[in-house]
Amino acid sequence: MLTIKPLTAAQLPDILSIEQQAAFAPWSLALFESCLAEDYFNFVLWDKDKLCGYYLAQQVLDEASLFNIVVAPAEQGKGFGRTLLQHMLQQAKQQYCHQVWLEVRASNTAAIALYQSAGFELTGRRKNYYQSSAGADDALVMSLKLSVS
After folding, report:
1. Which residues are documented as binding site for acetyl-CoA?
2. Which domain does 102 fall in, by range?
3. What string of DSSP letters covers 37-88?
4. Is 96 annotated in the active site?
5. CATH number of the domain where residue 75 is located
6. Which tens digit of pLDDT belongs to each residue from 27-37?
7. Active-site positions, per UniProt (predicted)?
8. What is the pLDDT of residues 76-115, one digit of tens each?
9. How many domains does the chain have?
10. Marked catalytic residue, from 103, 121, 129, 130
11. Which of these is catalytic: 33, 115, 121, 129?
């Protein structure tokens, strides 16, 4: 059974492990810790007693930014990314956000397809935004307008 719960500081070692396995340029523990501030909404996805993924987002006024959404490599392809994204959008609506922003690596076609299927539209491109030893990649800036009741 899938459950989504707020991220706690005690879960950061597990989150960091998933991040290091799944991310092209993993975040540091310090960066995760900085996202535990009050204006963030961060959640983890559990399948029974196994932590499978997470997202980190921040609200600023009536907008939300999705900073990170990651599913453990062994759990990918099961729809968990979509589940996390839908939860994030619902949380943004509950907090009266009218728009959601995100950046995605231009080469991450699976994530781009997921975001487009949820209604996100391309609004910009940041050339060579992602830098690593493997080279540079552009960031696509995407947004979604939310109807808040």
Report:
1. 108
2. 2-145
3. STTEEEEEEEETTEEEEEEEEEEETTEEEEEEEEE-GGGTTSSHHHHHHHHH
4. no
5. 3.40.630.30
6. 889 889 988 88
7. 103, 115
8. 999 999 999 999 999 999 999 999 999 999 988 999 999 9
9. 1
10. 103
11. 115
